[in-house]
Amino acid sequence: MLRLPRFSYLRPGSVTEAVEILAEYGSRARVVAGGTDLVPKMKRGQIEPEVVVGLSHLEELRRIEKANDGGFEIGACVTLAEVATNPALQSAYPGYAKAAALVSSPALRNSGTIGGNLCVDTRCNYYDESYEWRKALGFCMKKDGDICRVAPASATCRAIASSDTAPAAISMNATALLIGPDGQREVPVASLYQDNGKFYMTKSPEEILVSLHMPAPGSWKSSYVKVRSRGSIDFPLVGAAAAVQMDGPKIEACRVVITAVGPQPLDVSEAAAALIGREIDAAVLEEVAAEAAKPARPLDNADLSYVWRKRMTRRAIEQAIREAADVA
Amino acid sequence: MSNIGSREILRISVNGRKHELLVKPYATLLEILREDLRLTGTKHGCEAGECGACMVLVDGTPQLSCLVLPGQVEGSDITTIEGVSNGSELHPVQRAFMEHGASQCGYCTSGMIISSKALLDANPSPSREEIKEALSGNLCRCTGYGTIIEAVEDAGRAMA
Amino acid sequence: MTTIEGESATDLRVVGKSLPKVDAVGKLIGLTAYADDIELPNTLFCKLLRSHHPHARIISIDTSPALAMEGVVAVITQDDLPVKYGIMPTSEDEHGLEGEKVRFVGDPVAAVAAVDEETALAACRAIKVEYQPLEAIESIEHALLPPSDEPIQDYAGPGNIHRAGALEFGEVDEGFAKSNYIREDVFFYEGNTHLPMEQHSATATYVGDQLTLWSSTQNPHYVHRAMAKVFEMPMSHVRVIAAPHGGGFGGKADPFSHEVAVCKLAMITGRPVKCTLTREEVFYTHRGRHPVLMWVRTGVSEDGKIQAMHFRTALDGGAYGSYGPASMLYTGALQPTTYNIPAYRFEGVRVFTNKAPCGPKRGHGTPQPRFALELHLDKIAEDIGLDPVELRRRNFVKPYTRTINHLRITSCGLEEATEQVIEASGFLRRKKSLGHGMGFAISSYMCGAGLPIYWNKLPHSECIVQVNRGGVSLYCGATDIGQGSDTVLATVAAEELGLWPSDIRIFSGDTGLAPVDLGSYSSRVTFMAGNAALQAAHEMREILVNAVAEKMECSPSEVTVGEGKIGEMTFEEAANLAQEKLGVLSTRGSYAPPKNIGGRFKASGVGPSPAYSYSAAVVDLDADPYSGEIQLNKVWIAHDIGRPINSLTVRGQVEGGVYMGLGEALMEAQLYRHGLHKVPSMLDYKSLTFMDMPEVETYLVETIDLEGPYGAKEVGQGPLLPVIPAVASAVHDALGVWVDEVPITPDKIMRALDARAKGREGRYGPKSFPAIPYPTIVKVPPFDASSSSF
Questions:
Q1: Which of A253, A293, C146, C402 is the most buried (most CB within 10 A)?
Q2: CB pairs under 8 A between B and C
Q3: What is A221-325's CATH superfamily?
Q4: Is the CB of residue B73 less than 8 Å away from at least one CB of chain C?
């Protein structure tokens, strides 16, 4: 049986206490909520904390509350299943709820949390392997080594952003509340990530993501399209979240965020802005999607060829916009 | 930290029986069930959350025991395959699996039955699509899934 | 062999019914103890240290740091296992633990027994192995080049060739000369693996010179032989017990390193030793589907009749022999069992590469050529403007004939199976539309290999039926790997003795308890063990009937058997009556295939079978013309089962075969990169989930084979075979492009679409077939009909 290495498990009584523990242990500690990402990675020796700090028992992190601005405050330890099946969230943020519903398989959504999914480790099939496998190949810069195996000339790790919910949250201008030793700060979800597969999050290791703030949807309609090999279990090969505001048949505003095509989710709304003021037709959409997909840089570190994934980025963008705008 | 991984007390209820166990904090619920409690009906095919063989109910919700740390289930009620039948009387899901030949080698069966039971407890007359979705994290290499879908439909009717 | 004549389905009480499996309940309540569920008192846990190099000489192994660790009880290396073994007598090339060189990443070099797995793993990591890396060979083409340092196996021929064969039946050149149309194609079938849900596990004890091994094995008989050989012990001191089995599909059919290791460690430590593989290790243990490159050339007459066929294969065998010699020959053996090929030339080769060894997976060596052959015929049909179903029908073999390669065909439901799926699916009436397609293909498979894996004259299957204390026990070495073989044996005995299958106690898969059965491979159990059980049970029936007749003072023919009664007596009364009179009530049955079912030429051992099953399939799918993504809509499959012994388990096998075939067709692949298995996990080795599996409509064709038990034939492997080419054909039907390589993934379809858009051939697949140094062709004389009834 594949087993975990040794660590101690701490159950802080509050977020404040959890932050204190993280401050004390620094990089030797890791927080865990559902464990669906961390546990297999610890079993494979990709992450080796001495202390694992449990958060899922903290009631303060498990609430879905109406926010003052008409939006929602969703605690980091709310499960993906809860979000996927919550009628109020489904109605206000169909793209976000759909993204949550498309994460892995039902049992993993029962355990996995929205905070965990926003922070989910970047993936790479040179990295998501056992210690023995990585030793046989030669370690990579994300863990124990010094080069990127998929892009040896790259100065940074090119592991793939794999959160389904992050692009959907970004497309709705969501913000995340972080609490650290220096207090709390609220940042756009978009700014949580950076173009580096190893240091893929901008937050410090001592900070805990405690909640997600989804602004009032107003007239924004949203969707999320996930490309994967199978109808369940799999991580995205490409993901595209779209949010639109319509003025009759015309697009009034449009945001598009793509994922799994590089180390961070990419906001490609600027390219998608070409749709503003226009009706959706196939030719226009194709042209805009092609432009919006340009920053996608899939590499040979996931299933199927990167050429195919690059082309599917366009398709995913087109479909996400169509779904969001409710145009067949 | 000194004594990394030193054992801790875990209080859980398994199939209605309360346990107070001294466990490794880094042993998964799967290992605790199989090795500490010798409830080997819960199987393991990957130990990484990829196959569904180790599915158990944690407070009524299907979860993969290979991903669950003891610290996460302190005070929880766990149901394993050994707790599904009523004494020697098979649960309707088990009976339907038997009658439809939905268990071949049987290695995925515990997990399939746990997922199916959870589905039917929440929704006694699921559509085929709902059944597929609910079981979509449980892999089976023998049946081709068709007989399992039929068994779950049938069990739902029996439970209604 | 007992022949039962004149029975129609209505005469049969339990045979053919949809009854629950006899071992179902234990699995449903979580009580059945699979190999890893067994834990004997005082058990030590074993882990294997595996090579990190694809190909390297071992300079030294220092186990002392491991031995010094607290909790470590023993460490072994090749020094402890000097005797080589291997499933095929001609390829005994494994030590269990390698000491001179390693040949793939994952090759075991040492084994540790410790108080727990955590300690054993830490101890493995403490062992110091010094390697001198050698060039790693990852492809067939690379293997054939002169090695830059040394060949992978020292017994291989030049070009790392493990085995090669070249046979010609009939006049092939003449056949091509008189053909009106000739076509050549090249295909590639990527390797894939069994992916049983259960990881391999084994526990051994050594008590008073008796070695006992519990293992998740399909073939306890061959494992028994291997252990006796490796440990130079008499067979009588070794007992192998096949634990209840969590899925085999061919992947648990060899003797394995972990089995050898736990036995040796139990012998050293005197304690039970257990080893359970991780999922990653299962990918290294493998013995799955060979990657095969294929070239085929066929000539047909104006009306589409095959005149000659030339088939070339090259198998990527991985690092060890395994079943390789047989696998190689199987890529050429069964083509003539579906189509009447008057002249046939086959050239095959298996090369060693630095990958996990390949071996038998469901369909052993035949899904690859079946994929190639069926697609090749589709292309010929398209070229000559003939409907692909009609082309095939014109070439179907006929029942009770002899193939050009000397194989005896008996019952054959090819016509009926084809008719069934063509009608049910509306294949011939399908509407053409871009993105929607249907594909059709057929196949055949063996009901057990005609010859055992090692030469011996023993029966292939033996069975004892014992009546004692009013009940029936059946002993047979056959191994239930989930396919339901215990249920088949119980059903046969119940039918004969007027009982229910659940009334029969089955003792199987235990070499210390039950007589010989060769194992659960080559789809042999229903036919062979079924016949052995039928003979033993029938004889027992006669004993009981005679006892009752004597008591009742009537003729035995007046004594009816059924509903738990023998004549007017309950079964228990009758059993006690006979036992009082005769003492121990024990009957025997045995089965060996007839002698005349194959030819008598070198390499004729592969292909003969006492009967062949036949399958036909239609696949309906949508293929996206932009992305190449495939949505499976439905599969219709008809299988010539002879007669089902249990309709429930037969359906399970058919649909399970379809499932596995669809997985191979669309996504399953054992890929390598930089000398390593690319993705050894269940997440990244893709297999179909509930969401991906279409509806399957199953039809059973009953041809009542004259030699099968109650007319039964195999079902475990055959139904997988037509599915893969039917998928490829349906993709072509939907999009007009050919993907001549399995698996047919969306990116390959996109490449074919792109090629067509650029004005090139709308195809993805291998461009050419390499020059391979096949041996000189052996021209086999025609079958001597005087030695056979037909």
A1: A293
A2: 164
A3: CO dehydrogenase flavoprotein, C-terminal domain (3.30.390.50)
A4: no
